[in-house]
């Protein structure tokens, strides 16, 4: 695709979910190899004024080290991005996914966790602090799930335990998306979209797909 032209409706319509996934995999490979494509931002801004047709929507954590568009080497107009600490799903985020896939035509949903996630660590440590306490209840089920197979201590000092919780949180978030949204589940069952989960590695820049 031409990175200096906004993604057109015709191009979006021609993509299968597996094509959208390939675009992200290939973009992540370029990012890891420091081969990110040059982009004419001014041209894209002008080209995007009359609409947008992103091929994917990515739900990620708010972590400043995980810049989603850069991680996947995607340009303005290529992807929707939703962000919340701990990359969990709630009604508002799932509604945004319904818009992306059911209205705007996106073909792929990605739930992107990341190595060293502070929200998951806080859930492992049972942190209680302001509204963060309520937020962490969305992540605690994943932490509780991996306790049975993880060695102690079950807190943020145990890196393998935290890593297992990060992956489990991604998987449970995907299940939650399907549970909250019959629309998304139906689109997935019909093969019109796919849902993928991955974990971003901070040092290498690699997204490891689950």
Structure, explained:
With 210 residues, the chain is of the alpha/beta class. The chain has helices at residues 9-14, 17-32, 41-48, 68-71, 91-103, 118-124, 132-136, 140-147, 159-180, 182-189, and strands at residues 56-60, 79-83, 108-114, 194-200, 207-209. Strands 2-1-3-4-5 form a five-stranded mixed beta sheet, sandwiched between helices. The longest helix has 22 residues, at 159-180. The protein is globular, with a radius of gyration of 18 Å. The relative contact order is 0.16.
Low-confidence segments, given as residue ranges, are: none
| Mean pLDDT across all amino acids | 95
SSE ordering: HHHEHEHEHHHHHEE
Strand tally: 5
Key phrases:
210 residues; globular; alpha/beta; 10 helices
Present the secondary structure layout:
Blueprint: H1 9-14, H2 17-32, H3 41-48, E1 56-60, H4 68-71, E2 79-83, H5 91-103, E3 108-114, H6 118-124, H7 132-136, H8 140-147, H9 159-180, H10 182-189, E4 194-200, E5 207-209
Parallel strand pairs: 1-2, 1-3, 3-4
Antiparallel strand pairs: 4-5
Helix pairs in contact: 8-9, 9-10
